[in-house]
Design brief:
With 211 residues, the chain is an alpha/beta fold. It is 42% helix and 17% strand.
């Protein structure tokens, strides 16, 4: 499937011809990971559509968008799974999923479920000065971090945004030396120490295996 990160950020991933029994409605930032997992495991019973990844910049949009997508596709599928964590919705997405009778990924955000929610809950208090990036966010660093924060126009704002951070942790879903190098450059750009932490797909894979 030929998809660009820019498309996943701005428009998401439209549903192809329905073939499976279960529809995954996901954040565009998870599209490549879910497609890789589907292909690796032969999960032909799962179809995928994604909402724009940039909704994470406006999390108040996520819950209504998920509601609308569930309503649009509910009659076509036996079940629907929401590949979002809370993602800044303040519990509204979880409440909507319960109301709609659909499951979602547990956890506060993708950094947690990629790390593994149990492990992240244990370490997060010690890493309160840590800034996290995933594979997708490394590739889309300018679109999600630099431009929305105005750092491309006003680099002096770096200290205001990141002055209290000490370290950038790159949560690597894949072994990609070029992506690791780019993540290191992201850390350098923000003036932070760098750590690469291979997480694989974490609790995302665990959740999808149950479908």
């Amino acid at each position: 499937m030929n998809i660009s990160d820019s498309d996943l950020t701005e428009t998401g991933l439209p549903l192809d011809t329905p073939r499976g029994k279960i529809l995954i409605i996901a954040c565009g930032a998870l599209a490549r990971e879910i497609i890789d997992l589907k292909n690796a495991n032969g999960w032909t019973h799962l179809d995928l559509t994604c909402l724009p990844a940039n909704y994470h910049l406006y999390p108040d949009k996520i819950t209504d968008a998920v509601r609308n997508c569930v309503a649009k596709h509910r009659d076509t599928y036996d079940d629907i799974f929401i590949a979002y964590a809370d993602c800044g919705t303040g519990g509204l997405l979880e409440a909507a999923c319960k109301e709609l009778g659909v499951q979602m990924i547990a956890g506060p955000h993708c950094y947690s479920f990629f790390e593994g929610n149990d492990r992240f809950s244990e370490t997060s208090k010690e890493e309160i000065t840590t800034f996290y990036l995933t594979d997708f966010l490394v590739r889309q660093f300018d679109a999600f971090i630099i431009k929305p924060m105005g750092l491309d126009r006003h680099p002096q704002l770096r200290d205001m945004y990141f002055g209290n951070y000490e370290k950038l942790v790159y949560q690597a879903q894949t072994d990609d030396p070029a992506l690791t190098q780019k993540a290191q450059l992201c850390a350098d750009r923000l003036g932070l120490k760098f750590e690469r932490r291979f997480t694989g797909y974490g609790d995302l894979e665990t959740a999808l295996k149950t479908l």
